[in-house]
Amino acid sequence: MSFRHPDRDQIRIEGVLTALGNPLRLGAVRVLDAGGEHNCGSVLAVLGVTSKSTMTHHWRVLRDSGVIRQEPSGRENLLSLRRADLDARYPGLLDAILTGARNDGPDPKHPEAAGTGAWATGTASGSRTADAPGR
Amino acid sequence: MSFRHPDRDQIRIEGVLTALGNPLRLGAVRVLDAGGEHNCGSVLAVLGVTSKSTMTHHWRVLRDSGVIRQEPSGRENLLSLRRADLDARYPGLLDAILTGARNDGPDPKHPEAAGTGAWATGTASGSRTADAPGR
Question: Max CA-CA distance within chain A?
């Protein structure tokens, strides 16, 4: 099964911001931004998420908004950040967001996430609520 | 009635992105960024929103995320963008978002918004759905 992705010129800022306004999705993007090839499982492992189904919706939101590509490769799906597309459409946006997320550190409302040290090392913790407040 | 606002160091990137990932809220922020004092009614007028109650939830999301201040003044509420706080916490973020929104132009999924010309002049149209896709 292959996935549909918006073309670069179909990406909309509201969609990108909504996609990245969720701690798990933002965490996944931070993992992908660190480079290398990732399948879904390897991102989940870094995030500390054990439920694949939890992330199915999140991968779709990230894909549909134009933030990531998800491509089948054998029996896996490979994930990659669409950095070139995002940087072309919204110069400076992704870097500002990733720097901001790094500087924010662990969420004081979810102190259990601090113990993993994941935020401090530039990746993200998954022990948070799946959706940001205000949705 | 006065409102609670997070301190600068309580602002979280996920909250800011979620707040700005909605066309009406992003539109309101674009109006506020253009400068001047605004009460709720004057922002609604620029956005083309006739229902005050539609925006009550949106003002709260913008306030709770630290994006705007909403302060009572006589019988009105005055709104202002917390640009200094946002620029201090997330350098470049707000400018990247506002520039991106301006360059995106009207949403092709909501072509009726194009007729107002509001996007082209740097403000926003309100004739959109209240919530972004993917929420």
Answer: 41
